[in-house]
Every structure is written in structure tokens, then in C-alpha cells.
Amino acid sequence: MEPGSFAGAFQRFKLILPDELHGDPVLGRVGKLAMSNSYIMAIGADHRQGDNWVLPPPEESRVIRISVALSLLAAAFQGATPAPGPPFTLKQVAPGIYAAIDRDTRAGANAGFVIGDDGVVIVDSFQFPEAAESLLAAIRRLTPLPVRYLINTHYHIDHVAGNAVFQRAGARLIGQRNVAAWINTENLKFFTVDQARERALVATIPSPDLLVDQRLTIRLGGRRLELEAAPGHTGGDLIVVVPDARVIFCGDLIWRRWVPSLIDATVSTWTASLEALQRRPDAATFTYVPGQGEVATLADVGEFGRYLADLSAAVLAATGLGATGDDLVAAALPPLKAKYAGWTEFEHGAAREIPLMAAELAGTKRVPRGLPAEHP
Ligand SMILES: [Zn+2]
């Protein structure tokens, strides 16, 4: 199947809401919601009809907590009308270095690129190949230099679905060792069993063939890129440091004022990676390109780290009182809401992540198993 049909297969669809929820069909994009809202995965198998999703009234649902899911979905879809223009905003963060910041979830995540003396390196390839094509066109307008490498900061579908676009343009694909292990398998969990086309396409996303255990240096003439393992969001995260320009592409290690997904996270490891990032020499002078949200500063990195610490503390306090299930969410949410209610995705993300945090603290969380390092 043509990679170009990937986005068309699941990017946009019509969500038909039951009467209780305002009635009017609204447009949305299932891909991002599949990533960001685990509820839709539960709903999807029963309620997808062709390109539309028809959601039942809450009382008819066989899905646990569907009334909650419906209200969350309604809120999520209200602002989802596609905006005109490119799916990202290109921001020059240093000479020859650009962040491509997602617009209205149309790219699915942030990406970026570095123009060196003798070639271009791209960091991440978005959730939709159309967005990757648009980024490639933007690069071509800026420089005739060859596209030499595409770095995947981690395996999640919203950072790798455009890999084929850059591979066709001549880029070698680079990722942490575990990205190669998970890119064509673990991404299946973001799609429902009846999304056969999407699942088939996940299996064919080009995988990195240049694999990094801990560190790798790329030279683009006089410009140097340092790739460093920084796990926590997944077990296979890389950051990309451009020392001469004081820019760090952080992938989903950083979500700026945005409640992060913990689906594959180990927060204790994540916290250690964030602390190491903040301890780097001259950390305050760097610009940080996050995986989600606007271009960030060191203060934003610190704020994000405090969110994870506050989440962990709130969950620990609630479980210490014996709370479980819905009671745990109800007990842990208020202290987070007091500080982070204005963050993107707080409304439905924070409650969703609390049980995942609790599972990690209880030692019961399952995350994808990584490959052993070949050069320990
Ligand atoms: Zn991610």
C-alpha cells in the first residue's frame, strides 16, 4: 500500500455523537486521539462504521465508563476543525536549525531539522506522511543540500509515521536500539482491532538501521550533532544536541505545558534523565525543542520535571490512604488540578495517567521489553 494513503486511512473522520452530547457531527482525527485517549481504543471496535464513528448513548454502552469517555471525546472534538495552512509552524531556533511545531494536532507531534555544511539532518517524522512531505518541501525551499539522516527520538507512531518520506529522499534512519525492536510491533496498540489498514501500515514503517546504544556523533562538516540516550518516556529515547547552536531536540522527554503520556513510561527513569538534562554545562543558555508544545527554555524543563514529581507525590499520598480505582483518581487529581489545570490535555490526560503512575509505584506496570545492548 502507498505510504501516502496512511494518513487518509485514519487522519480524519466524522464523529456522530448521541443526542445527549449536542447532536451535531463534528470532525476529528482519530490518530491523535488513539494516542492520547485510551478510551477511544475501547470504543472503536464496536462503533466504527467505515470512516465514521457512531457513538451510542451512554446507557446502551457495554464499555466501562463510557459516559466519561463520551464527554471527554466531545470536548476533544469541539476544537478539532482543521485549520488552513501547513500542519506545523516552522520556527528558526538558531542559524540553520528549525523546530516544526505541530498545529492543531495536524502533524501529530513536533519535529525539526538541522542544516549543516554538507547536508541536512531531520529529527522525527510526524504522525502523518503528508506532514512529513510538507516538512521536506520546507527544507527544499531553504537548502539544496542532501537530506542525510533522519533521527527518530523514540518509536511512537506520532514521531515516525513519515519515515518513508525521508528515506525516499535519501536519508539514513537512526534510532535508539529499542526503536528498531518496537516500531513495527508496539505501535499496534494505538489502533483498534478493526483498523486493519492502519495496523498493516504500522508493520511497514521503515525502521532505523543505524542503531544507538548510548551515544553517537554526527558531523555535518563543521557542525556536530550529539545523540544521547535519555530514557524515561519510553525505554528507547534519544535527545539530539547541537552544541554550536545550543539547541537540544528532546522528543517526548519534554512536553511543554502539556500533560504527557505515560503509556510506556518509567517515571523514575524519566526524572533522572530530566535531572541530567538540567545539570548539563550552560543548561540555561540552551533552547529545548519538545515533542509536544511550543519551543521551551530550561525553566520549562524544570516545570515539566515538577509535574512528574507532583504526579508521583499525589498518587503516593492517595495510595497511602488506601485509595484504589476511581477513588484513587478522585483523591490524586485535585492537587494536580490546582497547579496544572491550564496545561494542554489536562482535562482528560491527567486522570488517565494516574493509574499508570500508581502501577509504576506498585511495581506492577508493564512496559515494552527492550533489547540487550550490544556494547554494554
Ligand atoms: Zn511519545
Q: How would you describe what is shown here?
A:
This protein has helices at 5-10, 30-36, 38-47, 66-78, 129-142, 157-160, 163-168, 177-182, 196-202, 267-278, 298-320, 325-340, 346-362, and strands at residues 13-16, 26-28, 48-49, 52-54, 88-94, 97-102, 111-115, 120-123, 147-152, 172-176, 210-212, 215-220, 223-229, 238-242, 247-255, 287-292. The chain has 376 residues and is of the alpha/beta class. It folds into three domains: 5-78, no CATH class; 88-299, Metallo-beta-lactamase, Chain A (4-Layer Sandwich), CATH 3.60.15.10; 308-362. It starts with a helix and ends in a 14-residue tail after the last helix. Mean pLDDT is 84; it is low at 1-47, 56-72 and 74-80. The structure holds zinc ion.
Strand ordering within the main sheet: 5-6-7-8-9-10-11
- The SS-based structural class is alpha/beta
Unreliable residue runs: 1-47, 56-72, 74-80
- List SSEs in N-to-C order: HEEHHEEHEEEEHEHHEHHEEEEEHEHHH
Number of strands: 16
